[in-house]
Known about the structure:
The chain is mostly helical.
Amino acid sequence: MPNVSNLIKTIQDIMRKDAGVDGDAQRLAQLGWMFFLKIFDDREKEMEVLRDNYKSPLPKELRWSNWATDEEGITGDALLAFANNDLLPKLKVLSGSGDIVTLIKAAFDGANNYMKNGTLMR
């Protein structure tokens, strides 16, 4: 596993190249929601193995593994449009009930995509 500090520094260096991310506060906010989705996706993969009837509270198209892990997946303006028009708005008003849905909605309540370059975001 790579050193977490080095990984975060590398990601922050990429974000510094983006015109939309202005300062550490925006970088941390951007990293926060992105890490949340990645970690949540990893946890869901575990739950799918451990529980026979596990059903994700996230629609398939919003799951990290369906839009972020494919190296040939969306990037550039298409990725920005997805994040700004689909991903974040839908996570803020996620339907369903239960603690997990409440947690996801709370995590994304004030979340914004500050990045303006979808290639750098990728």
